[in-house]
Specification:
single chain, alpha/beta, Rossmann fold
Length: about 200
């Protein structure tokens, strides 16, 4: 059984029910995503968690309407100036989670861009923040749930992958080019390709 998880119901507008797949509307933001995935995995064993949704692209990374796969997704857990937190006894923060490599490779082979995500609790709305996240964090695509969903599945020992449809440009809101329909079209393409790929793999 595969769990297909989105932040809001409208992100599932493209979805046609299919055997072996359950859907979950997690809610918006990293806390809602992580807690919803954890709760679902506590009640049923899934072979794969798919976090599918819309995302914003940083300049040069992708175009509005693209369907893309996120190989790794990060979240800033540091001091405001970017300095790592100093924790006792050598403990470290977890700031990155990865999608299932075999599925990432399969989607790459189908021609979908493989990019790096950043998960935020505040949507980027200035050029300054966009430059910082794209520069210091190496981010290509921004979402509010990716890292949290992947990390929750990872903690439960369940394979996971993140796919996105690009709905806007990250930066000043007046130049974001927001296009929900184009984002959903891109999400549909990459999601359908993913499930075709899963049909050919016994583990999923």
């Amino acid at each position: 059984m595969i769990l297909l998880a989105c932040a809001v119901d409208k992100e599932l507008a493209f979805w046609q029910p299919r055997a072996g797949v359950e859907t979950l509307v997690m809610g918006v933001g990293p806390v809602e995503a992580a807690s919803a995935i954890a709760a679902a995995l506590a009640t049923r064993r899934y072979a794969l968690v798919v976090n599918a949704g819309l995302g914003g692209a940083f300049d040069g990374a992708a175009q509005i309407g693209d369907g893309i796969v996120i190989a790794e997704d990060a979240m800033e857990i540091s001091l405001e100036d970017g300095t790592p937190l100093k924790l006792p006894r050598g403990e470290r923060t977890v700031e990155e989670a990865r999608s299932e490599p075999s599925l990432v490779a399969g989607l790459r082979a189908k021609g979908f861009p493989v990019l790096r995500g950043i998960t935020v609790a505040r949507v980027t709305s200035t050029e300054e923040t966009a430059r910082r996240l794209a520069g210091s964090c190496g981010a290509h695509v921004e979402s509010m749930e990716g890292f949290a969903a992947l990390r929750a599945a990872q903690r439960a020992g369940v394979a996971s992958i993140e796919v996105r449809g690009i709905s806007n440009r990250c930066g000043a809101r007046e130049s974001s080019g927001w296009d929900f329909a184009a984002g959903i079209a891109g999400l549909a393409r990459v999601s359908n390709a993913l499930f075709e790929l899963c049909d050919g793999i016994n583990d999923f």
